[in-house]
Amino acid sequence: MLLLLRVLMLSLLSGGSVKVVQNFESGCGQLFANGKSPTRFPGPQYRQICQTLNNDVYYATFYDTDNKIPVYSAYKFEGLKDCTRLDKWYIEPQVSQWRVLEKKIAEELSDQCLPKKYSVYIVTGVVPGTGNINNRVKVPSHFWTVYCCLDNNNRCQISSGFIGENKKDTPKNKTVKDLETDLATLYNVDSFELFDNSTKLPPKKQKFFKFLDVRL
After folding, report:
1. Which keywords has UniProt assigned to this entry (predicted)?
2. Which CATH architecture group holds 4-208?
3. Burial zone of 21 (CB within 10 Å; 0-12 exposed, 13-18 middle, 19+ buried)
4. N or C end: fewer C-beta atoms under 10 angstroms in the chain?
5. 103-145 per-position pLDDT tens digit
6. pLDDT tens digits, residue range 143-165?
7. What are the contacts of 108-113 at 24+ separation with CB within 8 A?
8. Chain Cα centroid distance, residue 64
9. Where are the alpha helices (DSSP H) in the chain?
10. Across residues 176-199, what is the average pLDDT?
């Protein structure tokens, strides 16, 4: 797994490129559960970007040109081999803390979802704070990540989410629904949808994987 602040670095790698598209669904919809992206905000400052590496589409990023940070990036998890590809891009102490959590999530997905032939979709993002770096780049106030394991009927059988402030605190483990509620408040919008409603099972049937220990 790759944390959001490293995702945009793909364009710096050999063979990496970015393409601004009119909508994610036609440009890189395969990176989203059931081909539908999370909530996108209106406004001319936002860009929908499909990122490629060696001619393969790896990430979809919803980018805020005013704050000069991504809102979120999405990708399809296919195994632990993806976890260490860009470790050198961890540059912030607060971001390095998430590596332990990411490793735990990757191990759980490899154990609980991939053996069942589930398709695993991950979205990870930030909430803009009030501070700036060099009077240009907005410092995030929160980091968050969420995953959904889709079965052969394109229904989310296993899911979980995490959110934490941009400081040395333990990220909070959340259900998808609770994380959506938190993000709607933090982004100051009426609602925020992480995965398309067609993927969702009734709450009693969906498995929420709760991490008993996410201390970093």
Report:
1. Signal
2. 3-Layer(aba) Sandwich (3.40)
3. middle
4. C
5. 889 999 999 999 999 999 999 999 999 888 887 888 889 999 9
6. 999 999 999 999 999 999 999 99
7. 108/209, 108/211, 109/77, 109/147, 109/149, 110/79, 110/80, 112/149, 112/158, 112/209, 113/149, 113/158
8. 15
9. 4-7, 24-28, 93-96, 98-112, 176-186
10. 94
In this structure, which amino acid lies at residue 58? Y
CA distances, 214 to each of 94, 163, 210 (Å) = 15, 11, 10
The ranges assigned to domains in the chain are: 4-208
Spacing of C-alpha 154 from chain mean position: 19
**Contact (CB, 8 A) for 62 and 71:** yes
Give pTM, 2 decimals.
0.84
SS3 132: strand
Could you read off the pLDDT of 44-74 as tens digits, one per residue?
999 999 988 777 888 899 999 999 889 999 9
The span from the first CA to the last CA of the chain, in angstroms, equals 17
Q: Which two tokens stand for residue 5?
A: 């602040």
Answer yes or no: are the C-beta atoms of 39 and 189 closer than 8 Å.
Answer: yes
Q: Which two tokens stand for residue 38?
A: 């999370």
**In terms of Cα–Cα distance, which of 133, 139, 126 is closest to 61?**
126
